[in-house]
Amino acid sequence: MSLDKLDLAIIALYLVGITLFGLRFRKRQRSLRDYFLAGRDIPWWAIALSIVAAETSTLTIISIPGLAYDTNLTFLQVVMGYVVGRVVISFVLLPQYFRSDLYTAYELIERRFGRGLRSVTAGLFLLTRAAAEGVRIYAVSIVVSIALGTGEVASIAIITVLTLIYTFEGGLAAVIWTDVVQTAIYVGGTLVGLVTILHLVPGGWTAIHAAAASAGKLQVFDFSTNFWLPYTFWAGVIGGTAFTTASHGTDQLFVQRLLAARSQKQSVTALLSSGVAILFQFALFLIVGIMLWAFYRVPSANFGKPDRIYPTFIVSQMPHGISGLLIAAILAAAMSNLSAALNSLSSSTIMDFVLRLRPQTDERARMRLSRLATFFWAMLLFGLAVLALHKVGRVVEVGLQIASVAYGAMLGVFLLGVLTKRANQRGAMVGMLFGFSLELYLWRTHVPWTWWVMIGTTLTFVVGYGASFLRKPSPPPS
């Protein structure tokens, strides 16, 4: 079985429809406040759904089921940490962001430490976000090439061009409101897929549950103290908390959404409610993986990569119409994440670098530069995705690893700024160098990625605080 005309029509209708919907917001972009912060007039529930969409991506939809297919439900322990991290951000970082009229997370660093460290943190965000997003876009090619047979490079190009069109014109408002639509599509599509799998497995949920339980596939908690296991309760909750505190609290991709809220209270509400939604969502994708295991009962190596299992099932087993809906749902997540990345990369480029060099630029020229930056990043991400085609394994873990390499150093610097008064720019830079270097080293070891952010944050904070007390030697008397 393969996609027929009905499936292709559904996919085409989605691609054209979401692009036209995003273009509806282009007339509202009159200033950088509109383009990068949607006028700070987005309701909390839309921001919450946009955060969920930005956190999901194609990696989540195709790789999390593959992870559950090979293992069990213990990844949920990491997601529990994601929820705790949101609480930390609400009390520690969000009050700092709403004390001033900020456009990027790294403006806070300049106000606390100075311009030099702002440039370093913003530059690190641009590098690591671009690298991680390249892997995420590559994940799209897995789905589209299986479904449409267009080839991996052409698949990446289709999604990049269509997403660029409405992000280029509509700014953050287009990003957030298309996120709302796309979240409904991919969650609804996944629920339809789940029900369909239930009908395809003889015996339905009763048979799936019995087989999965006997094989240990339904295990959620692992209280093992083995440091080298990535998905224990301790690694999941502690590591997940550190990861999300860093990602949602220091990464412009998420902070930008929180700054678009009408007030700090609405921003907190959006962040916490997105945590509840993300816990449900990851549980849904993991259950789909368990159900696919019950259906196939063959090693994941039979599919080439675990990430190919769910897309293969959709194309080969789903009824026509349903398969088209599910492919459209996966594309929805991909376009949602890409649009978020483009707008956040553009906002940091313009606000943290360009306008600091050209502060007298008028508003019309600023808007033109912002759109040019969006186009530049779209082309660069396309190139990085093509490079990633044959370089990665299980994409969800590779994407998380790339992000983790920078997040520890970033979070350590932000905590130095927020929690201490004695830390200075020189000390923070030294701490950041040590933290980032350690995390690069960890990538070459067998230390689980779930611990990287916590380790990097701790070293950055301790070294940065200590180095702040070291004074430069006084010049000798003349």
Describe the structure.
The protein is mostly helical. It has one domain: Sodium/glucose cotransporter (Up-down Bundle), CATH 1.20.1730. It has 18 helices and no strands. Helix 3 (about 45-70) crosses helix 16 (about 395-420), helix 6 (about 105-110) packs antiparallel against helix 7 (about 115-150) and helix 10 (about 235-250) crosses helix 11 (about 250-260).
Could you give a short description of this structure?
This protein has 478 residues and is mainly α.
Average pLDDT taken over every residue: 90
What is the count of β-strands?
A: 0
Q: Enumerate how many helices there are, as a single number.
A: 18
Report the top-level CATH class.
Mainly Alpha
The poorly predicted ranges are none
Shape: globular
Helix content: over 70%
> How much strand?
under 5%
The CATH homologous superfamily is named Sodium/glucose cotransporter
Structural class: mainly alpha
What's the number of domains?
1
CATH topology: Sodium/glucose cotransporter
Rg, alpha carbons:
22 Å
Distance between the termini: 87 Å
**CATH-scheme architecture:** Up-down Bundle
Order of helices and strands: HHHHHHHHHHHHHHHHHH
The biggest sheet, with number of strands, parallel, antiparallel or mixed sense and barrel status, is: none
